Amino acid sequence: MRLALFDDGRLGIVDGDNLVDVTEHLTTGDPGAAGALHRHIENVARGGAAETGPAALTGLARIPLSDAVLAAPLPRPGKIIGAPVNYLDHKAEMEYTTSVADLGVFLKANSSVIGPGQDIVLPYTDRRTDQEGELGVVIGRTAHHVGADEALDHVFGYTCVLDITVRSGEDRSTRKSFDTFTPIGPWIVTADEIPDPDSLGLRCDVGATTRQRTNTADLIFGVRELIAYASSVMTLHPGDVIATGTPAGVGPLGHGDRVVLDIERVGRLEVGVDGSRAVPYARRPGRRGR
Ligand code: MN
Predict the structure, then answer these.
(1) Residues around ligand 1, an ion, CB closer than 5 A
(2) What's the 245 CA to ligand 1 centre distance in angstroms?
(3) How remote is the CA of residue 255 from the centroid of ligand 1, in Å?
(4) pLDDT in tens, 226-244
(5) 149-161 tens-digit pLDDT
(6) 255 to each of 55, 267, 277, how far by Cα in Å?
(7) Are 220 and 256 in contact (CB under 8 A)?
């Protein structure tokens, strides 16, 4: 099942070329900033979600997918966990000497999320801002010290994530947390449709060029190990997102670029790039050289 947010926060199930509007069927009241899909994921975790089989959806409004404006499925996740250096070919291209096994995980600000069709806003005119195409894991059940063998029981589903990154000297959490730096979507595919997340083809294009092409089989920490490791550090809550890391082929984005991330069985996420508000790096706030 593919679940999407559309048209100012409505919740839909993708059915062929249509969206079935399940907003009132699956949620009640104002879902707040985290959105209706986040609320649904919490309902599922509590065992309190309504049925989503074909019979339960009969009679609900259907909208052509082409008429809907999709939004980020999780506009404000509780947390966004990133995996640094989780493919060997990316480790080699960046000349890193360490990997996720040494570095652990990092956090991105949850205010950095945008949805399909929106623009990544470049902060600096003279520092690279790179695309990183990644498989995203959406947590479905609270996970605390979960073993790798039971990790997938804690997954709600999967989505496409772009982990946008400035190449500068600051801490990773800073370089990856600018507003608009975490495009997510176009929807969440539920875990039952992806029995093995460690065997998915992934491709990321910028304009007419394919920059990244891999299979999640090449992850250093696969999805199970990432959940096991991350949950040994911090409790994972329903609706948290893990960006699993990027393969070789990261590169600079420029004003007007289109970025397309396509993950097998998950979906295709496309966003734009806006460099019109970029400023010189030296003009960033703060007192330096002390
Ligand atoms: Mn990354």
Answers:
(1) 132, 163, 246
(2) 4
(3) 21
(4) 999 999 999 999 999 999 9
(5) 999 999 999 999 9
(6) 47, 25, 10
(7) no
